[in-house]
Design goal:
Blueprint (H helix, E strand, L loop, with lengths): L2 H66 L9 H13 L5 E5 L4 E5 L2 E8 L10 E7 L6 E8 L5 E7 H7 L10 E6 L5 E6 L16 E6 L5 E8 L6 E8 H5 L3 H41 L3 E10 L4 E13 L3 E3 L1 H11 L1 H23 L4 E5 L2 H4 L2 H11 L4 E7 H6 L3 H10 L3 E7 L8 H4 L4 E4 L1 H5 L8 H13 L3 E4 L5 H9 L4 E2 L10 H10 L9
Helix pairs in contact: 1-5, 5-6, 6-7, 7-9
This protein binds ligand C2E.
């Protein structure tokens, strides 16, 4: 092959390998990206869930106290004050507990009875747990929020929760890598508790938050971010919101990315080399085959077809072998596919037919009825020079058969016409490996087919209880009905031969009788027959 063509082929392999690798690694990269993005988002959700869980636990405990506060004496005797103080000691999240009457007068708190009471807002009617804030506690001068419940009698018991204390208890500092984590009003989004820089997504209505939600896009600080929000189970008016910058979420870390790029390059190089290697091997097989033809290294072997009743040789199938200079004798499976691909099959097959005519001449002289069968494929049937070689051979071989597979018979429209021409010349058409083609059987009637060669797999099934065993009998029955001749291939045991004979299949081919023989061995066998044939009865 010229250098320029070889180079072009190599470039084609490199380009193909590049394309294949790009597709495969593109998919891998996309999967890696999705997996990384999901993991990062899950991390943010987990942080929010953790804070949600801890806050919820705190609020539940406080709420349980507020529910018990139904029994507190609202005239604020010593016992009531004691219970209020006891609660503050027990739960350090509360810095103050107070009792407010119907008019909004704060009557007493953990510091004592207020005289005169302080005017605050009148309790609302709802009996639900509620919050308000953020407020600045007068006593402690710090930000706080208030949890409250209105009792059955209309009095309110409330608890002051300083924001800083909660922030430390929840250890919000540990989430400083996030953009922010906050406890916000579910209706308005006003933060009650905040760690980080609070910003909200643009063009995405987030509030009111009623269920868990996620959002990503541009935020009001101009950055791209991801956000997760979840209302508190015990107080849905408050929600935990966590947000992080999109960059770490949507950017794959460099280590797996670099590993992927390195793997991509390695696979690209290996694949290019593999393609080059396969091409080279094929080229070399093609070249070797050409050389073999010119050096006449290809030769015929002949496998006898036996009449099982008389034990006489009634014909031969011509098979091909390659006497390879270094590999020894090679079977057709090694080189016929390549010969078909490269077109060398035509030259090989013409030489085969001519050799057979020459080699079989002495046997044909003894027995002019000797059947001689050649393997032919669709490609050969459309080749005038091969058909001419067959026609030529027919003048020497009276009983000439060509074997086609079902696939070959059906693959080309003009096959039928060619077969009819061959039949007109007196050539017999056989279907090889019959029963394995998975095609309908209508062609048996529309094509000029005389003979069916039962595939070895059906013969091998004789005496075995497998799926193919019933098919054999059906094939035999059908051939009889359609008036087709039958040959059984791959007969290896006396039991199989006996069975086939009983079913009316008289012509056998198989190792029980003989393997494919070189012409010299075939002549010896014919001279000795039938006495030397193994007896199987
Ligand atoms: N296990 C077993 N095998 C048996 C027995 N009896 C015969 N055989 C093998 O079965 C194959 C029969 O040939 P095929 O079905 O036409 O199948 C042939 C045919 O399709 C193809 N082939 C062989 N020679 C040629 C040729 O000259 N031209 C073309 N186009 N194809 C050929 O290669 C295939 C294989 O040929 P081979 O290797 O020679 O293998 C031959 C033969 O050696 C047996 O009792 N047991």
């Amino acid at each position: 092959m010229p250098r320029a063509r070889l180079f072009a082929k190599q470039l084609k392999h490199i380009a193909f390998a590049w394309l294949a690798c790009t597709v495969v690694f593109g998919i891998l990269l996309a999967l890696l990206f999705v997996q990384h993005r999901d993991a990062e988002q899950l991390h943010i959700q987990n942080v929010a869930q953790k804070v949600h869980f801890e806050l919820n636990a705190q609020l539940k405990e406080i709420d349980s106290f507020l529910r018990q506060a139904e029994s507190l004496d609202v005239t604020c005797p010593k016992e009531t004050l004691f219970r209020l103080r006891q609660q503050v000691f027990k739960n350090p999240a509360m810095s103050e507990v107070g009792i407010v009457d119907h008019n909004g007068q704060l009557l007493c708190n953990t510091y004592g009875v207020l005289n005169p009471p302080i005017q605050t807002t009148a309790p609302i009617k709802s009996k639900e747990l509620r919050y308000h804030g953020p407020v600045i506690s007068d006593y402690m001068e710090m930000s706080a929020f208030v949890l409250a419940r209105t009792r059955q009698d209309g009095y309110e018991v409330n608890v002051l929760l300083p924001s800083d204390w909660l922030r430390h208890t929840l250890d919000l500092q540990q989430y400083s890598k996030l953009d922010f984590i906050a406890l916000v009003d579910s209706q308005t989004g006003v933060p009650i508790l905040l760690q980080g820089n609070y910003s909200l997504p643009l063009h995405q209505p987030l509030f009111p938050i009623e269920l868990s939600l996620q959002a990503h896009g541009e935020f009001d600080d101009g950055m791209n971010k991801y956000l997760f929000a979840k209302p508190l189970a015990s107080l849905p008016k408050l929600s935990v919101v966590a947000s992080s910058n999109s960059n770490p979420i949507f950017t794959i870390r460099s280590t797996p990315f670099v590993a992927l790029v390195v793997a991509y390059l390695i696979v690209w190089v290996l694949l290019s080399y593999l393609l080059y290697f396969i091409e080279k091997r094929q080229l070399s097989l093609k070249y070797q085959l050409k050389h073999a033809i010119s050096q006449r290294q290809l030769f015929n072997v002949y496998q006898p077809l036996i009449d099982a009743k008389t034990q006489k040789i009634v014909g031969v199938e011509v098979l091909i072998r390659w006497q390879h200079p270094s590999e020894g004798e090679l079977g057709p499976a090694y080189f016929i596919p390549e010969a078909e691909r490269s077109g060398a099959i035509v030259e090989i097959s013409i030489a085969q037919v001519q050799n057979a005519v020459q080699e079989l001449a002495p046997l044909l002289a003894l027995n002019p009825q000797l059947k001689v069968s050649f393997n032919v494929n669709g490609q050969l049937l459309s080749c005038a020079s091969y058909l001419a070689a067959l026609e030529q051979a027919k003048q020497h071989i009276r009983s000439l058969t060509i074997e086609l597979t079902e696939r070959d018979v059906l693959s080309q429209a003009q096959v039928k016409h060619t077969l009819e021409q061959l039949v007109a010349l007196g050539i017999e058409v056989a279907v090889d490996d019959f029963g394995t083609g998975y095609s309908g059987l209508q062609y048996l009637q529309s094509f000029p087919i005389d003979l069916l060669k039962i595939d070895q797999s059906f013969v091998a099934s004789i005496g075995l209880d497998n799926l193919q065993s019933p098919v054999l009998n059906a094939v035999i029955e059908m051939a009889t009905k359609l008036n087709k001749k039958l040959i059984a291939e791959g007969v290896e045991t006396a039991y199989q031969a006996d069975y086939l004979l009983k079913q009316g299949v008289e012509v056998h081919q198989g190792w029980l009788y003989a393997k494919a023989l070189a012409i010299e061995a075939l002549i010896v066998m014919v001279q000795r027959e039938p006495s030397t044939l193994p007896s199987y009865s």
